[in-house]
Amino acid sequence: NAGVTQTPKFQVLKTGQSMTLQCAQDMNHEYMSWYRQDPGMGLRLIHYSVGAGITDQGEVPNGYNVSRSTTEDFPLRLLSAAPSQTSVYFCASSFYGQPQHFGDGTRLSIL
Amino acid sequence: AQTVTQSQPEMSVQEAETVTLSCTYDTSENNYYLFWYKQPPSRQMILVIRQEAYKQQNATENRFSVNFQKAAKSFSLKISDSQLGDTAMYFCAFMMPRASGTYKYIFGTGTRLKVLA
Known about the structure:
Mean pLDDT of chain B: 92
Strand content of chain B: over 45%
Number of helices of chain B: 0
Helix content of chain B: under 10%
Low-confidence stretches of chain B: none
Order of helices and strands of chain A: EEEEEEEEEEE
Oligomer: heterodimer
Mean pLDDT of chain A: 94
Distance between the termini of chain A: 36 Å
Shape of chain A: globular
Largest sheet of chain A: 7 strands, mixed
Distance between the termini of chain B: 39 Å
Radius of gyration of chain B: 14 Å
Radius of gyration of chain A: 13 Å
Number of strands of chain B: 12
């Protein structure tokens, strides 16, 4: 079992560029979510999904898009990168009521 | 809106002593789940302990235990016999069911714990 796999681990972008952070899980979890963690701060929920075809916004969704076409994958898209999106991004998955399994994070820098 | 509050941004404790980290949350639901996670400098998120709201008994995992006060909406974490390896950021998390039938997880802002030798 690979658990939750995030790619890439590191990325540097220029302002205005777009990119997709990949997240895949092999545990058949229905719930998947994306968080950002800024220095010295907690995890803020960006978007989440309770199953294929179902997504919803978290507390900081602006500038990000998601889709959930399969149970396994939950990519996060930055449409036009801004320096304020410099952060560490975590993907997580779980069954209902169970603790979330986290990926190792993606460190993203926007210049 | 933030529904999980960790009021202690930083704490320190002497090695072998006991420390309690506080967490409060807000919900009108009756069935939900609460978690404590540890994030060491490696940045990995590690589950420490889990509590189901319908269970009155407080969860315990070795040196870690919780004091779950459902009426007060409080979920504190007690670490006994603190070890240097317990130095980390600790996050309280709440699985929030919603009236629509969906649910989401919300995390507190974290408490940075330093264990002193």
